[in-house]
Amino acid sequence: MVKTLLLLFVLYALPAPAAVRTPVAPSYTAIRIDTREQRLELFWRDDQGQVFHRFDRLADWLAARGQRLMLAMNAGMFEPDFSPVGLFVADGREQAPLNLRDGKGNFYLKPNGVFALTATGPRIVASSEFAGIEDHVRLATQSGPLLLAHGMIHPGFNPASTSRHLRNGIGVDGPIVWFVVSDAPVTFHEFARYFRDELHCTDALYLDGNLSSLYDRAHGRDDQREPLGPIIGVVEPLPSAPVAPAAEHSTTPAGEAPAIHQE
Predict the structure, then answer these.
(1) Which of 191, 135, 124, 137 has its CA nearest to residue 163?
(2) Pairwise CA distance, residues 28 & 19, whole Å
(3) Is the preceding omega at residue 111 within 30 degrees of 0, hence cis?
(4) How far is the C-alpha of 143 from the C-alpha of 88, rounded, in Å?
(5) Which of 29, 163, 213, 229 has minimal CB crowding within 10 Å?
């Protein structure tokens, strides 16, 4: 009896086994855009020089001009007055110059980079290499740091970092552009690996942190975390109004543009 009691005492005195915690893989919203079929645009201010700040205001402005905003995302860092920190080109016109200065903060974590849409397709290059682009540049936005350059993760990213934030970025794989927003806080290294290992991008650019926002008309998403500066979006013409049938034949309203593939 005494031995039995001692055995029970020892068993109850033993510490409970520690819970095994399996790391949860970060989750992302990634949207694939084919620049051969879908039209990318950059936005900052309206005709009166007012910053758009919000996706719904931009959508209303475009609708009044016969266009529909399908997708949008914040497109790079900005100053307190919402002007771009670095290069900003829209419709082939430079509205803010290339910034090659040194400084503090993520934008200046060199190498930083430029996303550009040229006559031959989308590209992401280091800011120091942008002047070497010979193609006509229709759109360009500068941000930093580069997440990937030629498939290599930024050398300043620490795989063991615990600095996690919401993040958004843009990646390129040939003619394909990826809009990506993290669904939960992630490190720079985790974010870069997602572009490389899951989306198979060769180049990717970080756009911003906790204000990271996405607009997806087809899925009813319209993030409104904070006022925005530059915005990148996918735009299509509004469908034509139905035309009354003529005496001999009837006409059909214009069809929808190709559907966006949501990953």
Answers:
(1) 191
(2) 27
(3) yes
(4) 10
(5) 163
Q: Which two tokens stand for residue 176?
A: 């394909």
Task: Please write the tens of the pLDDT for every residue from 149-205.
Answer: 999 999 999 999 999 999 999 999 999 999 999 999 999 999 999 999 999 999 999
Q: How far apart are CA 62 and CA 118, in angstroms?
A: 23
- Here the tokens at position 130 are 């942008």
What is the C-alpha separation between 3 and 217, in angstroms, rounded? 72
